[in-house]
Amino acid sequence: MRRRSNTTWPVVAALAAVALLAGCTCDTCTCPDDGGHIEYPDQSTPDNVIGKLAMAYENMDADEYMECLAEEFLFSLNPDDVAGDATLPPYWDKSEERMLHWHMFADTTVIESISLTLTVVSTDSLPGDDPVDPSDDLWEYEVNVDLRVQAGVTYLSSGMALFVMRRSSDHLDTVWQIIEHHDLGGDHIQREDTTWTAIKLALGGPAADSLYPLRTSPVNVINKLVLAYVRMDAEAYLDCLAEDFIFFLNPDDLTDYPELPAYWDKVEEATIHGNMFAEDTDVERIALVFTGVSTSYDDAGTGDPFDDTWVFLEDIDLRIQLPPDLTLHAQAPEQFTLGVDPDETGHGGELLWEIRRWYDISEEGGRGPDPMVEDASWGTIKAIYR
Predict the structure, then answer these.
(1) What pLDDT, on the 0 to 100 scale, is given for residue 134?
(2) 221 strand-pairing partners
(3) Is the domain covering 3-209 a CATH 3.10.450.50 domain?
(4) Confidence at residue 192, expressed as pLDDT on a 0 to 100 scale
(5) Which of 12, 119, 175, 176 could be stapled to 171 by a disulfide with Cβ–Cβ 3.0 to 4.6 Å?
């Protein structure tokens, strides 16, 4: 059963500075040593994670901030910001957070100072399925945000945020990390008032123009594909696909629609998504969620990483909104085979990954009671725009 405690108390990053002056310790921080080093609270409790996040933000410490975030972390942008800018995705992952904050907190940043107060309004425990194993338990923290960033002008963000935390599976000790941060925003009464989302975008430097994860892992490629689809960005989407990429249609669709080919290549994908994502497209909005089913690694045994592959099986929920009130809906598994990109490396020489094969193995989509939702496969939705 959920337990909700309606507590109200502040976790203020400025406590670190107070501790420095007073030479004391507090519940959410540990005093700097004589060398001026700031020692952050451990992450043994959700409370400490909130306190550490606030401290890291005030100290503009990207590394400590990133330690607060789980690898599967997602930042959900403020809905008003997304509604006002069709180029923004509804969320981004830890890779984008890292890039944004490296630029925000770099030595060359335009930020002069940051003040962040997080006041917890309520907490909610979400027990996992196994009552004996607490590793799946989650905590939700609803907080009031008072964020002030001085960067020539003062950016003010006063609103609400929701943090969802879990115990990290990467540590032997109990370590809590944030898996979701939802920018819920608030009322803006001055031009300088803004959202946490907008502050990240405005002060994130070059990262603000490239919100996609680098293709340095198969997971990042999958995440980039999802973001590109939601943003209707054909160039970013096609960057996920190998030059010899093949999309294999669902065999059931070939029976129902004999005019369709069994597969098509990257050139056809470019045509399809050039049409689907064009400025004059009939697509009003895309929502897409991937839920991982399984992953498997195939070591070719040659010692050459270019011969190795990863296979990702994902449950998908794709909704494409068309006028006036029609939603194309695909909800079933997709299988992706990924390999190392032979033509491109990262800026530091890192291996990059790409999708070589995509199998639309979905069964008939989950049909619901809404008569304005048309269930289909991803392949037949693509075929509309050939």
Answers:
(1) 60
(2) none
(3) yes
(4) 47
(5) 175
Average pLDDT value for residue range 107-130: 85
Rounded CA separation 234/229 (Å): 8
Q: Which two tokens stand for residue 61?
A: 């410490």
Mean pLDDT of the chain: 80
What predicted TM-score, i.e. pTM, was given to this entire model? 0.54
Mean pLDDT value of segment 77-83: 86
Instruction: For strands 241-248 and 263-265, give the pairing.
Output: antiparallel
The ranges assigned to domains in the chain are 3-209, 218-383
**Band of pLDDT at residue 87, cut at 50, 70 and 90:** confident
Note the CATH architecture for domain 218-383.
Roll (3.10)
Which has the closest alpha carbon to 318: 359, 282, 366, 355?
366
Mind listing the pLDDT tens digit for each residue in 265-318? Answer: 999 999 999 999 999 999 988 888 888 889 999 888 888 888 899 999 988 888
The letter for the amino acid at 153 is V
Q: Residue 370 carries which side chain, given as an amino acid letter?
A: D
**Do 41 and 29 meet the contact criterion of CB atoms below 8 Å apart?**
yes
Residue type, 92: W
C-alpha to C-alpha distance for 360 and 374, rounded to whole angstroms: 18
* Calpha distance 312→353 (Å, rounded): 13
Peptide bond connecting 323 to the previous residue in cis, omega within 30 degrees of 0: no
CA distance 207 to 151: 17
